[in-house]
UniProtKB/TrEMBL annotation:
GO molecular function: peroxidase activity
Pfam family, any one: OsmC
Domain of life of the native organism: Bacteria
InterPro entries: KH_dom-like_a/b, OsmC/Ohr_fam, OsmC/Ohrsf
PANTHER family documented for this protein: OSMC-LIKE PROTEIN, PROTEIN INVOLVED IN RIMO-MEDIATED BETA-METHYLTHIOLATION OF RIBOSOMAL PROTEIN S12 YCAO
EC number: 1.11.1.-
Protein name: OsmC family peroxiredoxin
Keywords from the UniProt entry: Oxidoreductase, Peroxidase
Taxonomic path: Bacteria, Pseudomonadati, Pseudomonadota, Gammaproteobacteria, Moraxellales
Gene3D superfamilies associated with the record: 3.30.300.20
Length: 132
């Protein structure tokens, strides 16, 4: 067993706000004003989307470097969705500054399904909780 990531959050004085730390990095988490927060930082589901799109970008760039080609500039965006029936899903969109060949287009879609965070999100994750 190996720890592959670690993060901690400390409450701030504003309701719903916290300072998230991971290694030397600091981020603010909050809820939007429409949910009673101050909208000073990412909401929890924003972090899920951020993890997915970051992993997607890094994996695609690593693949391109390994195969010796340049994907050029591109963006990855994700929306976390939920409906009244309790179904949840993520829509992920990629946009490339330069056009992709049909073959590369298909390969990118294939690689996106194999990124580590994608694979984690596609299966259930056990969460063990303890109080220290």
């Amino acid at each position: 067993m190996a720890i592959i990531a670690n993060a901690k959050v400390k409450t701030l004085s504003e309701a719903w706000s916290g300072e998230v730390s991971s290694g030397q990095h600091r981020l603010i988490t909050d809820k939007p004003e429409s949910f009673g927060g101050q909208d000073q930082g990412l909401a929890p589901y924003d972090f899920i989307c951020s993890g997915l799109i970051s992993c997607t970008m890094i994996t695609l760039r690593m693949y391109a470097q390994h195969k010796g080609f340049d994907l050029g500039e591109f963006t990855v965006e994700a929306d976390f969705n939920a409906n009244k029936e309790g179904k949840e899903w993520i829509d992920r969109r990629l946009a490339f500054a330069q056009p992709l060949t049909e073959e590369l287009h298909q390969k990118v879609l294939e690689i996106c399904q194999k990124t580590p965070v994608t694979k984690t999100l596609l299966r259930s994750v056990e969460i063990n909780t303890s109080i220290l």
